[in-house]
Write a structure and sequence with these properties.
Shape: globular
Radius of gyration: 16 Å
Helix content: under 10%
Largest sheet: 5 strands, antiparallel
Number of strands: 10
Low-confidence stretches: 1-24
Mean pLDDT: 78
Distance between the termini: 24 Å
Order of helices and strands: EEEEEEEEEE
Structural class: mainly beta
Length: about 150
């Protein structure tokens, strides 16, 4: 058994949408106004994994954030915890995804699904590393900073 302990201390997420002709349009979530109604905690237990964790929505004088904590294990084909949200308004002309994050000096991932990524092994993925200080992270689909993944079994 491999036991990994990952504690993501905080994530402030803003998804940014700049469409051709609508260059000032933005899709944003700053964890205000009942974020627990929009964001869902999700773990590998849905497929038999044994990881555990939770998300708490916190507020400081400067920022609202989601604190995702947990214990990850690859036992029984597991190995993930996450929070997820349905996002509407993104198109193939989306120019940037921005988030602020801090944590435990580990690598984390953003996963995006579209109406065209129907199967569980089809998604877009961007990797980022967190430090113990808040850091702004930008990922640009037009600059190949987000990869399409389609796993074949």
């Amino acid at each position: 058994m491999i036991l990994l302990s990952k504690h993501l201390i905080g994530v402030l997420l803003s998804l940014v949408l700049y469409n051709v002709g609508l260059c000032d349009q933005m899709v944003t979530d700053t964890f205000n106004n009942s974020p627990e109604k929009r964001w869902i905690y999700f773990a590998d237990t849905v497929m038999g994994g044994q990881s555990s964790g939770s998300v708490d929505f916190k507020q400081t004088s400067q920022v609202n954030y989601a604190r995702l904590v947990g214990n990850l294990t690859t036992e029984n084909n597991g190995g993930f915890i996450q929070i997820r949200k349905k996002v509407f308004g993104l198109t193939n002309s989306t120019q940037e995804i921005t988030l602020k994050a801090k944590g435990n000096n580990e690598i984390y991932h953003i996963f995006l699904r579209t109406s065209g990524t129907i199967l569980p092994w089809q998604y877009y993925k961007a990797e980022f590393k967190v430090t113990n200080n808040w850091k702004k992270i930008n990922k640009d689909p037009q600059k190949n900073q987000i990869d399409y993944v389609c796993l074949l079994y």
